[in-house]
Amino acid sequence: MASQSALINVMQKASIYASKGLLRDFGEVENLQVSRKGPADFVSRADINAEKTIRRELAKARPDWGFLMEEGGVIEGSDPEAPVWVVDPLDGTTNFLHGIPHFAISIAVMETDRQGRRSITAGSVFDPVKNEFFFAEKGKGAFLNERRLRVSGRRGMADSLFATGIPFLGRGDSDEHAAFLKELASVMAVSSGVRHNGAAALDLAWVAAGRFDGFWERGLSLWDIAAGVILIREAGGFVSDFASRDRALDSGDVVAANPAIHGDLVKLLRG
Length: 271
Hints:
It is built from 8 helices and 15 strands.
């Protein structure tokens, strides 16, 4: 049985509270009041309310910490040296608004050293539909509910299943779309399949759980990937940018996989 720290308990409690409203609204998704905030990028009442709930619960437990949130942006904490909460209250918004039951709440803890280098020291991804709570702390391993996680042990690309995000209207220009299709074709030609599920935080959590063998996507935001990065690393996997550097958090370009195939995946994607 996984022994959860007080910090993880705070993150789980906030996720569960926020999920109650999400699940209620998901059941009435056709009646949601929705506004456009960009091409093919929707923000819903459910998204905003979930973020408010998460912020309230996290601030109650750690009042000095700041926030970096998808909807609310940067909120400075009273202690500038304290960690920062990185929150995506609804990863998979488009799925949610189309009635597709695949979305999650992602929360991470980010610390910055005196040289300005950022690191994720704890993270959680909660799938309220499946009641799956993925969590990890630096040096303590990764878990799904009460089960310890390890990335997959597959050693060859031919047996491996990958996940990715597909560019869409308002996300990348025609050249970037063409570059993605080239990457996709390269992975399709040597793997057992590629999936697009529409929720990057869950894709990364599933790599940590060994369900996917690898994942890649460009142009993600910090709140999309922060929790997933520590989940994969604590589950024994590798996370990098497309040049195999430890800069995914800064660039938003992510390649993640088990150790046996990470290098091969990076080479394929670089062409």
